Amino acid sequence: MIRIITGDKGSGKTKRLIDMTNDALKVEHGIIVFIDDDKRYMYDLRHEIRFVDASAYPAARKCTPDAFLAFLSGMLAINFDLSLISIDAFLKLVRIENPEELVPFVEALDNLSTEHSCNFVLSLSIHREKLPEKLLPYVAEL
């Protein structure tokens, strides 16, 4: 399952993502990972959640969608117990020039989710109205 949280900067996306990730401890039976572009929110997460500062990994800094998908695939390849990966500041981590470029990425991520039984939640600093229509079913309401 893929969920997308959208909104402007300062609209509460990160807080919502952190709350969703912390709440997932009650229902997820595997390992939960939170990926961010820095360590700013590391202490807002429960200690059971694995925190990844993507800025520490060159392959996950301002990379192409394919490179970021490979980064996530590598995480799943080495740990089959991952059940949720939350990704904050997605558009800071992945170079996307046009919202339409999100469609093949989310479709590939959805396939990865199905194949490896791992859910993903992304926060995107973009207006819901600017998202391609194909991605609207993935949007989590605030």
Keyword list:
5-stranded parallel beta sheet; 4 helices; 142 residues; globular; alpha/beta; 19% strand
Q: pLDDT below 50 for ≥5 consecutive residues: which ranges? A: none
Measure the end-to-end span.
18 Å
Order of helices and strands: EHEEHEHHE
Task: Report helical residue fraction.
Answer: 25-40%
Which percent range describes the beta-strand content?
15-25%
Count of alpha and pi helical runs: 4
Would you mind describing this structure in some detail?
The protein has 142 residues and is of the alpha/beta class. It contains four helices and five strands; from the N terminus they run E-H-E-E-H-E-H-H-E. Strands 1-5-4-2-3 form a five-stranded parallel β-sheet. Helix 2 packs parallel to helix 4. The two termini are 18 Å apart. The model has no long low-confidence stretch (mean pLDDT 93).
